[in-house]
Design goal:
2 copies of one chain form a homodimer. Chain A is α/β, with parallel strands linked by helices. In chain A, helix 4 packs across helix 6. At the A-B interface, helix 7 and helix 8 of A face helix 7 and helix 8 of B.
């Protein structure tokens, strides 16, 4: 099926999920929307995140998407159920695939989760993990400074090491052996986080797991694009609610994700 | 005149301006709007900030305000002119009073400005300063990590000292003797900033200067509330676009500004 897959995020971070989808599903067409005008979602209430997410879903539907991936952990945590009630096409968040991987990995049954304030407060990872295995102990910690530090480019800085050390300090008191990086920006801090938490702890990147699950899901539903890459060049269309130039340069510089064109959408009108 | 003064900001930071107005104009009624759903403005484009600001002005007009204070540096920088064109009541931003004070203070004619990315990129402080005195040299620096650090409560932390040191490093190469704290959150870092930049540099807080200018302006226009505080208890009404509880606790804990009630407004509908 040639229709594109819709992917959305509160901003530019969701491009990490796009990159994984491109890698694992190289024949698929993609439409990306980044809500750069209203970013970040991580400190907003459930009501507001649901309202914004539904506007975006309505916009993506005008692009005839065959499935939607919510690349934002916060929107996955707060809006997935409401969106599924509203539309008929498959909708996937990043939380479930990440939780599944962590649950399959752990031997101590102690799993750590780091994310934005809203993702952590939602308790959504706990919910999924306990559905998979009620014996799992979940230790969670909000890390509000990680996104600004990544956006300032301080990925391997002494200040970042200091802050990572403080946020992860509590987690280290539990015997976790898997840590879910519950925000699209966090994999960029992977080295510092790994150093701090220790090499015995597996870092789970929901972007990677989501692309894997998406491939399975599209296969099951007979929605995979069956044209070979030789027959067609896949199309990637990018839309944002603000700041095209900033979006493009951030995608290039920070995420090494080449975007040559993006269009502004008046998202409040959807 | 009993009508209230409208004050708005991208979030909670504008309450620092409210506090100054309460102190310097204790007889005035106030209506505050904080755009907590769409905060921060500092990384958004001019178009988006203008659109959001105009929605807020339309909301404030439904409260019959007699004047409007834009407590947000970014919105003052990007939207003041457009708002003034649209409405008849006096509108004041925080930029002009801050610039005026700095220009009156400096002896070296070298003035530093720190603020959000959008405020700095707008060049608005330069414009006002050069209008006052074309000989002034303006040195400006965006400090994107200051707001998240303040919001994490790290006002006097070693990490904050480290980051402040890096941001102000360049400014120290110029002989500035006045530094404008061009963002509502920055006065909370006053001690660390002062330590880093040196005691010979006067720190200018636009919130304080704005309240002073507002008093003068209302006097000139015959708009001061002439009822004495003995005759009436002034009313303070607070509105936000998201997260009432978070707004109230931040106001209390961080700004020591007591807010006992706030109401949610669907600001996109204005």
């Amino acid at each position: 099926m040639n229709a594109p897959i819709g992917v959305f995020d509160s901003g530019v971070g969701g491009l990490t999920v796009v990159k994984e989808i491109m890698r694992q599903l190289p024949g698929e067409n993609l439409v990306y929307f980044g809500d750069t005008a209203r970013v970040p979602y991580g400190s907003k209430s459930k009501n507001t995140v649901c309202k914004y997410s539904k506007q975006i879903v309505r916009f993506l539907q005008t692009k005839q998407v065959k499935a939607i991936v919510i690349a934002c952990n916060t929107a996955s945590a707060l809006a997935l159920d409401e969106i599924r009630e509203e539309i008929d096409i498959p909708v996937m968040g990043v939380v479930e695939p990440g939780a599944m991987m962590a649950a399959n990995t752990t031997r101590t049954n102690n799993i750590g989760i780091i994310g934005t304030e809203s993702t952590i407060k939602s308790g959504i990872y706990n919910k999924f993990l306990h559905k998979i295995n009620p014996d799992i102990t979940v230790v969670s910690k909000a890390c509000p400074l990680f996104v600004p530090l990544v956006e300032e480019g301080l990925w391997e800085d002494r200040v970042t090491e200091d802050i990572v050390g403080r946020y992860l300090h509590e987690l280290k008191e539990y015997e976790i052996d898997a840590l879910i990086l519950g925000c699209t920006h966090y994999p960029l801090l992977r080295r510092v986080i790994g150093q701090e938490i220790g090499e015995d702890v597996k870092l789970v990147n929901p972007a990677y797991e989501t692309a894997k699950s998406l491939k399975l899901l599209l296969g099951e539903k007979n929605l995979l694009n069956t044209m070979s890459i030789e027959e067609h060049e896949p199309t990637y269309d990018y839309f944002v609610s603000d700041g095209v130039d900033k979006f493009i340069s951030f995608a290039d510089d920070v995420l090494s994700c080449h975007v040559d064109h993006a269009e502004i959408v008046d998202i409040e009108s959807y």
